[in-house]
Amino acid sequence: MVGFMILLGLVIVIALWAVGQYNGLVAARNAFRNAFAQIDVQLQRRFELIPNLVETAKGYLTHERETLEAVIAARGAAMAGLSAAHASPGDPAAMAQLSAAQGQLNGALGRLLVVAEAYPDLKANQNMMQLTEELTSTENKVAFARQAYNDSVMAYNNRREVFPASLIANNFRFLPAALLDIPADKAQMREAPQVRF
Fold it and tell me: What is the pTM of this model?
């Protein structure tokens, strides 16, 4: 009888430990998903600013139609990348698609702002100044949200890989989450576009 009570106590302790590990993994997964939601909010704001920026520039950049079209196309690709990542935050393929699309959009926006430098009337336009200021502010918010997301992903991945939690993670399909990074070969995209008036 004493042996049975000891065995029962041991089973209860193991069950409570397993439940605690499982709940910790769920909390960590929810934390990185919530952090991704903050990126989603900031990128949506960025996507809303871009058509206004293009419309403001369109009147001045009549000879730069290709640049404007590149920005609109990159925005569409970035929105598709965000949609894929939103459906599965942390999925390596979705994060890679989002990262590549954001890199293309950063490049297109950078080219637009460089071209805008050559047009003094456009640089002095009040709408253009306000939109570029809002875009720069949004870029900073995206960077902060991305850092918070990456920190949450790292905490989740560490939690799921550490023994003995890894036993629970592997048995209940807590898959590794991918960081959101900017392509390393495009170092100029690591910073928000610089706007000078």
Answer: 0.80
pLDDT at 28 over 50: yes
Q: What are the tens digits of pLDDT across the range 89-138? A: 999 999 999 999 999 999 999 888 888 888 888 877 888 888 889 988 99
3-state secondary structure the chain: CHHHHHHHHHHHHHHHHHHHHHHHHHHHHHHHHHHHHHHHHHHHHHHHHHHHHHHHHHCCCCCCHHHHHHHHHHHHHHHHHHHHHHHCCCCHHHHHHHHHHHHHHHHHHHHHHHHHHCCHHHHHCHHHHHHHHHHHHHHHHHHHHHHHHHHHHHHHHHHHHCCCHHHHHHHCCCCCCCCCCCCCCCHHHHCCCCCCC
CATH number for the domain whose boundaries are 14-187: 1.20.1440.20
The residue ranges of every structural domain in the chain are: 14-187
Structure tokens at 145: 């949200």
Q: Please give the backbone phi and psi of residue 76, each rounded to the nearest 5 degrees, phi first.
A: -60, -45
